[in-house]
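Q: I'm writing a short explainer about Tyrosine--tRNA ligase for a general audience and would like to include a description of its predicted shape. Could you first generate the structure from this sequence?
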Amino acid sequence: MNQASVTHTPATDRAREALAVTLRGVDELIPQDDWLKKLVKSEATGVPLRIKLGLDPTAPDIHLGHTVVLNKMRQLQDLGHTVIFLIGDFTSMIGDPSGRNTTRPPLTAEQIKANAETYYRQASLVLDPERTEIRYNSEWSDPLGARGMIQLAAKYTVARMMERNDFHDRFKAGNSISVHEFLYPLMQGYDSVALKSDLELGGTDQKFNLLMGRHLQQEYGQEPQCILTMPLLEGLDGVEKMSKSKNNYIGISEDANTMFAKVLSISDELMWRWYLLLSFRSEADIGALRREVEGGRNPKEAKVLLAREITARFHGAPAADAAEQDFANRSKGGVPDEIPEVRLDGAPLGIAQLLKQANLAPSTSEANRLIEGGGVRVDSSVVSDKGLKLAAGSYVVQVGKRKFARVTLA
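A: Of course. Here's the predicted structure. Afterward I'll give you a sentence or two in plain language.
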């Protein structure tokens, strides 16, 4: 960020500190000087700024990648500003075309309601529910009606709409664009008008929609909002953005032991990126920790601190302590205190079939692949024979580093 652009704006130390908090880890803050002016005005008047995050509840589960924006909301909330968690129940019926090369199928009202409830419950693990305003954009979108929708559509041109990358690319490729998709950015922008938003947050893929809010606020005679885009978080592989479809994610509803172990599996280089975007530690603390690692401290110790912080956020400190101990036990070849109990019939039973029936492998072919790779242990001994058959009895069966079951075979 270019700090020179804000030097001519009179600002207190507190406002500049708030600006620094705002800028941490962001991709863009537009326009930065306007945001500083808003911070100065808020401090002078004692009126909190209104900070908006709009979410279409297209899926009910949140992973750590989603929390990057929520973390920023919490930081701004802790500065004393009003956070508006906006559920796009109306816009979900249109479907966000951002980054899409096909028309998104709309959701039913029942799906939207169920997803929104789950999403907010999970988001409340990051946000302070006592200081969060929950709104649904059907409040003002439904009353618009046909006349209001036509009047709103008159405030933007087709030429400007076609400058949007996904529309431009789809049109050029000969892919269809439904007329209702043009309404999505208009309706998201109108949300900012209805809420009198001072700042709207979103991912880098939302920039067009966020700028639409600024444009429409000016059209309606309001002071335009600033926009803040956050980068997309790289997943466990350190390459692709975190995504369930790429299986490189950590769901915030995953159990504490799995969450802790997954954080420890990331690379030392990716760890610092995660510290910046996911940790609530100050940048000064993170910088000091990084210098310690560069000076010879084991990077795993820094990673354990990150894993503890993230796990404690979603499961509490006692669960984070237990997860750390569980990971230490497993790394030494030990068996966790609590593992699933499974009872099976059919002794003597082939090891591949046992793994499948005990839900330790999705299929016998995958079980055989795991055995070939040396990833299967029975009572701490590595299984190398795919033809092994186990007699009646009780066994502790381990697959990889994290899957265990105590199997009683009859």
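A: For your explainer, you could say: Residues 1-7 have pLDDT under 50 and may be disordered.
Q: Perfect, that's easy to follow.
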